[in-house]
Amino acid sequence: MAEVSASPVSIVLVHGGFVDGAGWEGVYNGLKKDGYNVTVVQNPTTSLSDDVAATRLAIAQVQGPVVLVGHSYGGVVITEAGTDPKVAGLVYITAFAPDKGESVQSLIQNPPPGAPVPPILPPVNGYLFLDKSKFRASFAADVSEAKAAFLADSQVPWGVNALAGAISEPAWKTKPSWYLVATEDRMIPPPAQRQMATRAGAVVAEAAGSHAIYISQPETVAALIAEAAKGVSGKMAAA
Fold first, then answer.
1. Residues in domain AB hydrolase-1 (predicted)?
2. Full-prediction pTM beyond 0.85?
3. Which of 45, 161, 164, 168 is nearest to 99 (CA)?
């Protein structure tokens, strides 16, 4: 415990589309128990630039180097915001890891045959929602019915501008990264996750879980984040 508590690395957690930062509570509690300084970003999910600004604000408020963690669309946000000099490493939790010029929109344009199609409803006034009746099956199959219903009913509108936001310089090209593949994910197909993780040169872990693995298996997610924090701490100590 003392060794971890002495770590100079802070953790910044970035949520994805349709949800807010409250889903990180289990991961937050596990990391705090291990002595880490943890900040949870509340993205407006209105546009990529707005979300990057919110994330950079959180990075600016913490001491020392940062491990930046993104779930789902949060992976796009950390890919863009992670070029901040304070960011020492990136962790993708069943997330998009785009290259330069890519966006969620471009990455999901041509799904492979047989891949599950997320039940995204037509936009309303420039914002997207998931079909509530299909939310649990697609997003949160391994959380309780009651919790999935709450997530479905408390959806945060996801701006089409966020979906279309393209990366200028991907942080994973210059920062070490880790990636957790959720093998039962029905929002981002696991083969696509593996392809993005390999392209980013990430350290890859896999676990059987839904897109909401950060809620259903917080210990698994927190363990990979702690591994990343120790990894960047070791590199800094060796430098």
1. 11-223
2. yes
3. 168
